[in-house]
Design a protein that fits this description.
Layout (H helix, E strand, L loop, with lengths): L1 E5 L3 E7 L14 E7 L1 H11 L3 E8 L4 H8 L4 E7 L5 E7 L5 E6 L8 H9 L6 E5 L5 H10 L3 E5 L5 H7 L5 E5 H11 L7 E5 L5 E5 L6 E3 L12 H14 L4 H15 L12 H10 L2
Parallel strand pairs: 1-4, 1-8, 2-6, 4-5, 8-9, 9-10, 10-11
Antiparallel strand pairs: 2-3, 6-7, 11-12, 12-13
């Protein structure tokens, strides 16, 4: 099967700092790097490095051709990535000494995707393929509704969180992934947990909680204990690996355990896409931590 990732491509500008700047403060950084990021790109790379056949639907500006080369190396099918007149999306990321981050995003070309791109991508899909999306592009709801109607399995990472957008796609999802804050915000809007076939709530250093429709209780899987250097992209690594493992036939719990290991490995390296491990690295890590 194939994972069709409808998502963002960003140029990440990463500043390592002693602390996050407060209002009015000018702060000198300790280090600076530029790399590939964006929730869509991160998730697609994680799925591809997990061994899944991955097809990307997105857009870049004229300044983003290098991103195509990096995605292709994953390997990812980049034939549905359009060239936009807008600048390639970018993110300014601050990472503190504890490995935590704050991020400011400019959408750029990520907000210039078209319905024609969606339709052409779906025309080459098969029922049972996965459609994976998040909130850093335009036409997210339209893409998920169309994919669901065509018989694809749909997964949605509700970040950056938008309650209205999330509520709109809930009836069309097979899997919803949120972090603790997003889960709490969604409960505030609904008055209860969302009713989706699979609800995945990442809990940071505490692991992940999985709730399946029709089952009496949720299952919590503990996180692997590592020393974090940079948590940027850890959630994307988790969801991309999870969908990649599911696409390859792993059961939900085994897939989540694999995704937990991939996310743990990713925070021990600098960067977002650059920190995503290969399936060989994940397998060795799990064997060493059995």
């Amino acid at each position: 099967m194939t994972i069709h990732c409808y998502g963002s491509i960003n140029v990440d500008h990463v500043h390592r700092v002693t602390h996050f700047p407060v209002a009015g403060e000018t702060l000198a950084d300790n280090d600076y790097a530029v790399g590939l990021g964006g929730k869509g790109a991160n998730q697609a790379i994680a799925a591809a490095r997990c061994g899944a056949q991955t097809h990307f639907i997105g857009a870049i500006g004229k300044d983003g051709a290098w991103a195509l080369d990096l995605l292709s190396e994953a390997p990812i099918d980049t034939s549905s990535i359009a060239l936009s007149d807008a600048a390639t999306g970018h993110a300014v990321i601050y990472v503190d000494t504890q490995g935590e981050n704050t991020i400011v995003i400019h959408g750029g070309a990520n907000q210039a995707l078209t319905r024609d791109q969606i339709d052409k991508a779906l025309a080459r899909s098969k029922p049972g393929d996965w459609w994976l999306a998040q909130n850093e592009t335009n036409l997210v709801t339209e893409s998920i509704v169309a994919a669901n109607a065509r018989g694809l399995r749909t997964a949605y990472s509700a970040a950056p969180f938008d309650a209205i957008a999330t509520l709109a796609v809930l009836p069309h999802l097979d899997l919803l992934a949120v972090n603790e804050g997003e889960a709490a915000a969604l409960r505030d809007h609904l008055g209860h947990d969302p009713d989706v076939p699979v609800l995945v709530t990442t809990l940071g250093a505490q692991g992940v909680m999985i709730r399946e429709r029709g089952k009496d209780s949720a299952i919590t899987l503990p996180a692997y204990k590592v020393t974090p250097i940079d948590t940027t992209g850890a959630g994307d690594t988790f969801i991309g690996t999870l969908i990649g493992a599911l696409d390859q036939g792993k059961d939900l719990i085994t897939a989540a355990e694999t995704a937990n290991a991939a996310a743990a490995l990713s925070v021990t390296k600098l960067g977002a896409a650059d920190a995503i491990p290969t399936t060989e690295e994940v397998t060795a890590f799990m064997e060493n931590h059995a």
